[in-house]
Design a protein that fits this description.
The protein is elongated and about 90 Å long. Helix 1 crosses helix 11, helix 3 runs antiparallel to helix 4 and helix 6 packs parallel to helix 9. The two termini are about 20 Å apart. The chain is α/β, with parallel strands linked by helices. A hairpin with a 2-residue loop joins strand 3 and strand 4. It has a domain of about 210 residues: P-loop containing nucleotide triphosphate hydrolases (Rossmann fold, 3-Layer(aba) Sandwich). The chain has eleven helices and eight strands. The structure holds adenosine-5'-triphosphate and magnesium ion. Adenosine-5'-triphosphate binds next to helix 1 and strand 7.
């Protein structure tokens, strides 16, 4: 994965529990040691980055080691911020009566499922588009794959939806304008609602373009040599290709070490070989890093250094 050291934005995704947080943390540590200014962002509700680094990381960017900053996004807090911003944006647009009703509706929406995702997505977009310039690398430790990928595909989906809203707004405005004397003189007053929708759409478009810049942005798939994670990774690789996001490589985690011996381990290793071959066969073009099953959980700098060394090692020969 050495080739990823010069990327600007990396997403680490994969099935639950396969080692996303461990890989993202280890890679971020390695990149910061290589002299890059790194921001590690966790969108995972369990906030395990604090655990791995044995440091208090919270909702504000904070330097945890030289050159390495941490940030843990909190869904409830982001949802609150998102809703407050929506209310603030509206306050300039409508009269008090409409505003009170709209604010009530927005408050009701705030607790609906999906709003936290939207809010996290909004914050991630912001980090990608506006904060990334303050760092050399922003690494996202994402929630399990399906979720992370859905987020990354949001620009396309939301963009279509926002475009449809804007089109309806434009139609409405045109109908109203036909009836007004100003339109006879070709004047078109600026519409604030349309302005907001168009700004939204421009932002989504900018995000989509940014995510498609393969020389800057990549998605790293973390998996373990077992059936379900392999299936999920193959699907994810396909989805990434479809979304136009570069696949940076595969981290094959928890591979039994050569020194594990005895009948039990020999049998496990034989099974594992089948899966390792399958990974190589089904995702042949992806650069691969192999991380062995360590004797204990990965906590603290020493453990992360061991994982980082594996991530940066020359990738194993094919097959
Ligand atoms: N190679 C390894 N050897 C030993 N333990 C490991 C290894 N990789 C990860 N672990 C341990 O496995 C557990 C899960 O790893 P991690 O938290 O990185 O997974 P995750 O994909 O982020 O999980 P989640 O989906 O819950 O966010 C952790 O306790 C971690 O320390
Ligand atoms: Mg995690």
């Amino acid at each position: 994965m050495r080739h990823l050291l010069d990327r600007h934005i990396l997403f680490f995704g994969g099935k639950g529990g396969v080692g996303k947080t461990t890989s993202a943390a280890a890679f971020s540590l390695a990149a910061s040691r290589a002299g890059r200014r790194v921001l590690l962002v966790s969108t995972d509700p369990a906030h395990s980055t604090s655990d791995v680094f044995e440091a208090g990381i919270g909702p504000v960017e904070r330097e945890i080691l030289p050159g390495l900053w941490g940030l843990e996004l909190d869904a409830a807090r982001e949802a609150r911020r998102y809703v407050d911003e929506a209310k603030a944006r509206m306050s300039g647009l409508f009269g008090p009566a409409v505003l009170a009703e709209a604010a009530r509706q927005i408050e009701l929406t705030a607790s609906m499922p999906g709003v936290a995702d939207l809010a996290i997505f909004d914050r991630m977009s912001d980090l990608v588009l506006s904060r990334a310039g303050a760092y050399d690398l922003v690494a996202f430790d994402t929630a399990p794959t399906g979720h992370a990928l859905q987020m990354l595909r949001m620009p396309d989906r939301l963009s279509a939806w926002v475009a449809a809203l804007a089109a309806r707004r434009r139609q409405g405005l045109e109908a109203a304008a036909l009836a007004s004397p100003a339109s006879a003189r070709g004047e078109r007053p600026a519409d604030p609602v349309l302005g907001i929708l168009e700004a939204r759409q421009a932002r989504l478009e900018a995000l989509r373009r940014e995510l498609a810049r393969g020389e800057r942005v990549a998605f790293v798939l973390v998996l373990i040599p077992e059936r379900l994670p392999i299936e999920e990774s193959v699907r994810a690789a396909h989805d990434l290709a479809e979304a136009g996001i570069a696949m940076g490589g595969l981290v094959v985690n928890r591979v039994l070490p050569a020194e594990a011996s005895g009948a039990y381990y020999e049998a496990r290793k034989a099974q594992e070989r089948v899966y390792l071959e399958e990974i190589a066969r089904r995702m042949p073009s992806a650069p691969r890093a192999t991380v062995p099953q360590l004797e204990s959980d990965v906590h603290g700098i020493a453990g992360l250094e061991r994982v980082a060394a594996c991530l940066l090692a020359e990738s194993a020969p094919r097959g």
